[in-house]
Amino acid sequence: MTYTLTGVTLADGTTTNVVVEGQTISSVGSLTVGELIDCSGLMVLPGFVDLHTHLREPGSEDSETVLTGAKAAAKGGFTAVSAMANTSPVADTAGVVEQVFRLGKEAGLCEVFPIGAVTVGLAGEQLAELGAMADSAAQVRVFSDDGKCVSDPLVMRRALEYVKSFGGVIAQHAQDPRLTQASQMNEGEVSSRLGLAGWPAVAEEAIIARDILLADHVKSRLHICHLTTKGGVELVRWSKSQGINVTAEVTPHHLLLTDDLVESYDPVYKVNPPLRTDADVQALRIGLADGTIDIVATDHAPHPTEDKECEWSAAAFGMIGLETAFGVIVKTMIETGAMSWPRLVEVMSTNPAKIGRYSRQGGAVTAGSPANLTLVNPKSAWQVDREKMSSKSKNTPFHGTALTAKVIHTIYEGVFVVKNETLTGLKHE
């Protein structure tokens, strides 16, 4: 298949043509070859890469499957997602990560990279088969007990030491379990007023501080999942000033939503870690803009309706986010003038691919790069509608939110998997 994307705009503002032959970008410039596809008014960006996705399969297919999650990812402009390990059975063996990897290949909509568990059963006690997962067909390089914290410092140290041998990274869910027992929301003025058990910022920051020091001690790679607090941003900023090999992510919802929304008692706003204060939101935006925070990650966490449409204390933690991530980042970071389009490419494509060691993802839109591309309209107003989501679940906190940028086409390995906002007829159908 050979075609030319004509009149398309790059992140730096240049208008050009992009020729795709097979799975590769063959030319960027004036040349036109094959079918001509008019892309006037559209920007072409490297395909988005999500380093933090919950696809729920195996074990919770009522919430999501690899296939339905891949559909949501493609609709959101993602050409690669990273499937977290808190499945059933847990992805703590080569067999389970290879199953997820195979399901991703069968879906054929984006690359699906399994994340391996750090500890057996996410129990935090015994290291999982890290080496076997790294040597498997899935070639796992990111390991996380996300959903739970690796709270034992000795276990965390050993994990950091182990993955260092093959260039892996430990992605930590920073949450001291003793400080967050029965917690329901951010600890602060709103939690006091509502009478809900508070989730203190120090529970996140204490683990971040400890793990930064451990990573420095063993000279290994550490990644902080879903950073949410102003203090956490300062800790990561300090670690980078010291040359410590630490990276961090922020979710779209933590860049926009605040804990005062919990006053509605609507469980759609119940998430782990919790929504924080406006001061935290502003610190996260500054941290993402100035490079302290390396990437945006969705923490896409689907749940069946019955686990969300219930009383707050009984509801599950989590929000879906693959299909709204781009629009929310434009709203919070581009429209506010906090961030440029080239920086958006870094945080949604280039940097997550580098952290995950995903060799065919996140490359510049240049001749010779793999044709994993997202074409977006930066000035196309739309309103989020949970009933139109491709995800199996509908627990979006952005239902009814007006956004002004949308994904129009997603190209994975040279093939349009989404064309004119519609999933195309491939082997997933």
Structural summary, described in words:
- Helix content is 27%, strand content 21%.
- It is an alpha/beta fold.
- It has a 5-stranded antiparallel sheet with strand order 5-16-19-20-21, with helices on one face. Strands 9-10-13-14-15 form a 5-stranded parallel sheet. Strands 3-2-1-4 form a 4-stranded mixed sheet, with no helix packed on it.
- β19 (406-412) and β20 (415-419) form a beta hairpin.
- α4 packs across α6 and α6 (201-218) runs parallel beside α7.
- The longest helix is centred in the middle third of the chain and has 18 residues, at 201-218.
Secondary structure layout:
Layout: E1 2-9, E2 15-21, E3 24-29, E4 35-38, E5 43-46, E6 48-53, H1 66-75, E7 78-83, H2 94-107, E8 111-114, H3 130-135, E9 142-143, H4 153-164, E10 169-172, E11 185-186, H5 189-194, E12 198-199, H6 201-218, E13 222-224, H7 230-241, E14 246-250, H8 278-290, E15 295-296, H9 325-334, H10 341-356, E16 373-377, E17 382-383, E18 402-403, E19 406-412, E20 415-419, E21 422-423
Parallel strand pairs: 1-4, 6-7, 7-8, 9-10, 10-13, 11-12, 13-14, 14-15
Antiparallel strand pairs: 1-2, 2-3, 5-16, 16-19, 17-18, 19-20, 20-21
Helix pairs in contact: 1-2, 4-6, 6-7, 7-8
